Amino acid sequence: MSHVPAIHVITLGCPKNEVDSDRMLASLAASAYRVTDSIEDADVVVVNTCAFIREATEESIDTVLTLAGDWKSSADGRRIIVAGCMASRYGAELAAALTEADAFVPVAEESALLERLQEITGVAADQGGPVLSGRTVPGPYAYLQVSDGCHRACAYCTIPAIRGPYRSRPMDEILAEAATLVGAGAKELILIGQDISAYGRDLAGPDGLPQVVERVAAESGAERVRLMYVQPDGVTDELLDVMAAASNVCRYLDIPLQHASARVLRRMRRSGDASAFLHLLSRIRRTLTGVSLRTTLIAGFPGETEEDISLAEVFLRAAGFDHVGVFTFSPEEGTEAADLDGQLSEQVRLARTQRLRDAADEVGFTRAAARSGTVERVLVDAPDDDGEIVARTCGQAPDIDGVVLLDKPLTPGTLVDVRIVDSIAYDLVGEVLQ
């Protein structure tokens, strides 16, 4: 019997990449190849890359070069496939420069993975049957992609160039995958896309994000449904009413604002300002009592002044976000922002990033501490990097918002009530209630 190639997948970047990797793993599981969690057991490593900003591209390249030096060179016949965003963004230029890789699979050609594997291993893929779910479920939560690509033209962003124009998934496809993921063990479904609030803009029917949320919550069987990447202009009264009416929809919104200064936002080719955003947050809190709110901001955008960054600091203290991601502006090749006048030094950009992080932490730590004494329903998660069993409230999204530290180990996937007795930065400390 001939050797069956073993395939190991490494995923870098955001949850959209995790979904793409899940689909690739599902196609591998239905093929003649063998999936392995051990890189030393692998014949081929597929690196699903990120190239959103320079640092992500550098991490992707470093990962491939390290694999080539430490893993590929240590045994004959080992191969590397570069998949995902970096392959999409740089195309033939990357193939010419990164000769350590044996094949490339851009995002739009994800379905060609088995064909590339067949070419570099010489072993037929022999896909044994249909991939029923197209996904795997590695833990108690799963990402459910409702759209891909983006219709916006933000001056700093590479996503449209990498993932193409906005494309909504058909409702029946979303619901089928949601039910399959829950059937496979997912307790929490996290709706993602570049901008899920634009759902349906490219479809003929009347359905928008409110209808997706309503139907996934009612029909999937999920214990929790969470929304990520909802642009501010997509937070409609209809959406808030749907969220308020469904008991299994987390009172949580991730709204990427990117700045608070109207002048900077217009240079970013975005709308809004501090006053409009504060009004939006007030409207959300009136409808969704106890909602947890998250945003992202970019510091050091070209032309940003001391007045602009001070305005953003004041805004963060007034807005009362539970969690904030602050990113340092990165002048990405091919974007409008990379060529704008008023480029700031890296030192200034980093210093302003820290200022916004400090302001966000001042608010976030206080809001976390204020939860002491409350009783929260938590979902027990898979062990963290240190092997500790942790949990998450509805106000904590995986990997970005902190966790609940438990006073006793529980089985992942368990939903249990805990009393919050303390906080450590963004993490909460909970006593399990019997």
What features would you describe in this structure?
35% of the residues lie in helices and 20% in strands. It is α/β, with parallel strands linked by helices and 434 residues long. β3 (44-49), α2 (54-71) and β4 form a beta-alpha-beta unit. α7 (209-219) packs parallel to α8 (237-245), α10 runs parallel beside α11 (306-319) and α11 runs parallel beside α12. The chain is globular and about 65 Å long. The N and C termini lie far apart (55 Å). The model is unreliable at 129-133 (pLDDT under 50).
Structural class label: alpha/beta
Give the tally of β-strands.
18
Mean pLDDT across all amino acids = 90
Describe the strand arrangement of the main beta sheet, using strand numbers: 2-1-3-4-5
Strand composition percent? 15-25%
DSSP helical segment count: 12
- Main beta sheet: 5 strands, parallel
Radius of gyration: 22 Å
The helix content is 25-40%
Shape: globular
- Model regions low in confidence, pLDDT < 50 over at least 5 residues: 129-133
> Roughly how many Å apart are the termini?
55 Å
Secondary-structure element order, N to C? EHEEHEHEHEEHEHEHEHEHHEHEHEEEEE
